[in-house]
Each structure stands twice: as structure tokens, then as C-alpha cells.
Amino acid sequence: MAVKRLGLIMHGVTGRMGYNQHLVRSVLAIRDQGGVTLSDGSRVQLDPIIVGRDAGKIRALAEKHGIARHTTDLAAALANPEDTVFFDAASTRLRPALLRQAIDAGKHVYCEKPVSEGLDEALAIARHARAKGVRNGIVHDKLSLPGLIKLKRLRDSGFFGRILSVKGDFGYWVFEGDWMPAQRPSWNYRAADGGGIVSDMLCHWRYVLDNVVAPVRSVSCHTAVHIPERWDEAGQSYKADADDAAYATFELEGGIIAQINSSWCTRVRRDDLVTFQIDGTHGSAVAGLHRCFSQHRVNTPKPVWNPDQPQALNFYEGWEEVPDNMVFDNGFKVQWEGFLRHVLEDAPWHYTLLEGAKGVQLAEAGYLSARERRWVDLAPLEV
């Protein structure tokens, strides 16, 4: 059976996320495995063209990875009818205009999150994609990670009984950049450049909570700039005025309460850089990116509060690890394959630009809550 070709325009793959997760570990990995396998057993091979402003940088990438095509001319790439899918992982600020340009060229579009800096713009681009009849998607990578797959499997099986609450803890210490180089780009900490942990992370927490636990209905959020001065990639100090920590409480459908702390100013003493704990009447579970541990009510210890004696119980011992039971591929790659099957054979796909707009909605509501120090309800969204 002949292998078909899919032309793919990739924009913004010189950055850390675009390069590592999308170009190398997803698209090139799919290419190297022989393409995307469709439901009838046939394969479609990917033929990417990488697009960027720095000709030398994208040429070097193409040569390093055996990519036949590269260009600095996005308009020319979009004009090629043989390339039918456009992907963007560059600046959030530029994304809506780039997506609109690609949609107007008749391309199916897939992009990183957030889809835009504001809800109105996010909804406008989702509506434009629908009006033009193009397939569209936004990355929901954490849903394809082993830890969250296991956590959702427990929920779907009824393990928790009635779910009561969720506790999430995300973050790590991002060095200021003076004596130790920072491990995140400096724009993350400048409000004028679109930085801020709320805009970066609450879009993730929206789809995690919506899909793994229950839909988010309202939010109360407090933000902070804990480190007001940082040093950029050139070693120059700058004012860090974008929120570097957010402490949020969410009310979910069914009266479930979720609390998630997000911080780039915390040191880690837990199982992973992000952990989620679901507590229910019949059991609890804690998941990181890859591992998940559960405790049923029949295995729950019975501690007694006594501050005058050292704690005799080792609370870690009462938890059982949820087994893999399957081989887990890279989460980004799994979602790439799902979206491409949606484009190629109309396979089911839930993570549209409208779902991306929900993440922007939550971030916007989080900022509003922080400014006005109140709960903010989320209205239903439609395109």
C-alpha cells in the first residue's frame, strides 16, 4: 500500500517547547516511525517545512534533523496548496493573527496554548475557523501524560465514590538569573511581554479539571510578584512585574472544591513538579506526570492528633501505586497523532480552539478575581 504525504507548516519551532516537544519528539518521531497510521491500516507520512525569522537558525535545524524544507517567508509557505496543516508554537501575542492568516489560506490549524491573550480574541478566532470550515486544535498535552491518564481511569471506574475535593501543587524555584542562570525565559516575568503564571498555567488547569475531574464553574484567585527583580539572558537586571505565583480555588460542577497553587518561587518536596490529589468518599489518589498512587477507604489509616508525641505513622506506606498496564508514548506526540487523524479521516477530536478559549477565559477570570478580590463565575462559551 502506497504511503501518502501530508505537508505540514511548522512555525515557532526554534523555541524550547516548539523544538523539543513538537518538532523532535512529535513530528520527527512520527516521521521516523513511518508516518501516521490510519484506521484502515494505511500510513500518511509527514513532510514538514519549518518557518522562522532567523534564516541561519532554521537552516541549522533543518540540516541537523534531515528536514528538506525551510523558509523565512511564511506567506509563501501558506500559499503552497500541497501543505494543508499549519502549526504555531511562537508568541501568544502573535498567535491570533497567524492563525487567522493560515485559516484564510485554507489551512487546518493546530497550536500551542494559550490561543490568545484575551477571551474575545480567542472566541473570534475559534468562530473564524468554524466559519471557514477548517479543522482546528490546541495542545492539551497533560491529558496524555501517564499520571493523569491513570487518575482519570480511577475516576471513570468509580474508585473515588463521590468526589469531594482536589488539591494541586505546581512549581519549582526559577533562579533569578544573577548568580545562577534562570531556567525560564525572561519574558515570562514581564507583564508588557505577556508574562505571568496565571496566563501560562490556568489554561492548563482548566482542561485538566474539566476533563479529569469535573467542569470548572467559578474561581477565586490571589496573585503575587514574589521576586521583583530578575536578570535576563544577557545578564542585565530588569523589573519583574508579572505574577510569579498564583493561589487559586475553583468550584467545580457537583460542588467539588479544587485548590491549586502555582509558583515559580517554591522549592520542591513532593513526588513531582506538579501533583494532583483527588479525595472522595471511597478513596483518594495522588498523581504526578508519570506515577499515580491510590488509597482505598479499607486501607485508610486512623491517625490520632497528639502534638506531644512524634508521629508514629508513615503516611506514605498506606498508598498503592497504580500500574501502567499499557505502554505510554510521549503525550505531545499522542495528541499530534490524534489531531492528524482528525484532519485525515475525521477521527474524533475534542480539543478545539473553543476548548482553548475556555483556558483563556479561566486565566482572565483569575486576573479579575485577583484585582477585585472576589469569586468570578464562568459563563458557558459557544462559537
Q: What tags apply to this protein structure?
A:
single chain; 383 residues; alpha/beta; Rossmann fold; Dihydrodipicolinate Reductase, domain 2; 2 domains; nine-stranded mixed beta sheet; seven-stranded mixed beta sheet; 9 helices
General description of the model:
The strands form three sheets. Strands 17-16-15-14-8-13-12-9-18 form a nine-stranded mixed sheet. α6 packs parallel to α7. The protein has nine helices and 18 strands. The longest helix is centred in the C-terminal third of the chain and has 20 residues, at 353-372. A hairpin with a 2-residue loop joins β14 (274-280) and β15 (283-287). The model has no long low-confidence stretch (mean pLDDT 96). The chain is an alpha/beta fold and 383 residues long. It has helices at 16-32, 55-65, 74-79, 95-104, 119-132, 146-157, 197-213, 331-345, 353-372, and strands spanning 4-11, 36-37, 43-51, 69-71, 83-88, 108-111, 136-138, 163-171, 216-224, 229-231, 237-239, 245-252, 257-263, 274-280, 283-287, 292-296, 320-321, 376-377. It has two domains: 4-141 and 331-349, NAD(P)-binding Rossmann-like Domain (Rossmann fold), CATH 3.40.50; 146-327, Dihydrodipicolinate Reductase, domain 2, CATH 3.30.360.10.
